[in-house]
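Please fill in the sequence for the structure shown.

STRUCTURE ENCODING:
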């Protein structure tokens, strides 16, 4: 994969404005969907959730509207996650989501935009081709891909083209992407299907196992955000309300931060382990750069209390948290598009693999 290189191009101001205005960066994340134009302005920022009519499979609403849909639990409406652990769940739904997204941005960027999708490294060739097909059917003239870690690195304005090693760790809702990069290429990388959603699931399991309490994914997420920690901290407690698993009645229990921390420990250890294995398999002469430049942390789940400290301690490398972690990848992809347009090139950042599974 070759990252975009910014080059200056003389003249052609009008033409360049037109090219730029028809490009968009799209991050169809497991948790949030973000679309940005080449100036980095967000055109869409929604939860990746769809309300689907079960009778004919049509998309009723997407994003926060789907979550707020009155009567959304009615028999013929299903609330679905179009992406889970970085994998598209249903091709027809992907088509409809792509159509919905391009429909929403059409007025801002024109009818036939060029799209750069930020995808996790684990997205297979089949998945990338499915996304390409859906966005093209929805009107995109061209679809390219950039992997999350590289996109976030560009979002961090790292010197990825230069002969120094830089490292990015992006932990989203369903995937963790890590890459050590140098000279515009990826030296070592890892992409695993684990993210913040798995921490939520661990909290739900804890409440069910220890308290016989059933809670919604949203409540589990709130518990994680409020008292979950990736690094030992002073004990705190909160009251959590849910349904009793045996009789279905509403009930409240008090849960402590240490209980939540031990419940999420296995997933955290696996995520941090991906960073360690990337460093261990990188050539030893890059270690100095990594220690000097640090590890750059992005993705919404990086906001978990103590995450940066945990990662710094496990890797021995100073950690810099992105200013806006959940948006770093889409902002980086948008910057990449802008650099490509500046260079006057339509060269693919990464072509869809023809053979891979
Ligand atoms: N303050 C926070 N503390 C802990 N986790 C958080 C916080 N804010 C967001 N998250 C988690 O970040 C994840 C979403 O990250 P994001 O990068 O938007 O995901 P994706 O790109 O996979 O859609 C969710 O699991 C969410 O619970
Ligand atoms: Mg993300």
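FILLED IN BY: designer on duty
SEQUENCE:
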């Amino acid at each position: 994969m070759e990252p975009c290189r910014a080059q200056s191009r003389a003249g052609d101001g009008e033409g360049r404005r037109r090219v730029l205005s028809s490009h968009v960066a799209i991050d169809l994340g497991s948790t949030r969907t973000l679309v940005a134009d080449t100036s980095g302005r967000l055109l869409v920022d929604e939860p990746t959730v769809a309300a689907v009519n079960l009778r004919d499979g049509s998309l009723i609403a997407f994003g926060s509207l789907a979550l707020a849909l009155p009567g959304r639990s009615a028999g013929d409406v299903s609330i679905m996650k179009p992406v889970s652990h970085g994998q598209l769940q249903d091709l027809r739904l992907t088509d409809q989501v792509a159509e919905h997204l391009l429909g929403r941005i059409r007025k801002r960027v024109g009818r036939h935009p060029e799209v750069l999708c930020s995808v996790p490294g684990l997205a297979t060739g089949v998945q990338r081709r499915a996304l390409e097909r859906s966005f093209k059917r929805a009107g995109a003239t061209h679809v390219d891909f950039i992997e999350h870690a590289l996109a976030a690195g560009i979002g961090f304005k790292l010197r990825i083209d230069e002969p120094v090693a830089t490292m990015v760790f992006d932990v989203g809702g369903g995937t963790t992407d890590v890459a050590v990069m140098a000279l515009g290429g990826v030296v070592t990388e890892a992409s695993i299907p684990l993210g913040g959603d798995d921490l939520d699931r661990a909290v739900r399991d804890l409440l069910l196992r220890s308290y016989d309490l059933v809670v919604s994914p949203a409540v589990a997420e709130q518990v994680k955000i409020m008292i979950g920690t990736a690094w030992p901290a002073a004990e705190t407690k909160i009251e959590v309300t849910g349904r009793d698993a045996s009789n279905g009645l509403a009930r409240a229990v008090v849960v402590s931060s240490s209980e939540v921390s031990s419940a999420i420990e296995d997933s955290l250890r696996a995520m941090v382990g991906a960073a360690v294995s990337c460093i261990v398999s990188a050539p030893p002469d890059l270690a100095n750069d990594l220690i000097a430049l640090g590890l750059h942390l992005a993705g919404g789940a990086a906001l978990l209390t103590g995450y940066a400290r945990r990662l710094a301690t496990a890797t021995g490398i100073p950690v810099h948290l992105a200013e806006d972690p959940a948006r770093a990848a889409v902002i980086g992809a948008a910057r990449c598009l802008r650099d490509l347009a500046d260079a006057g090139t339509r060269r693919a950042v990464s072509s869809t693999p023809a053979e891979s599974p």
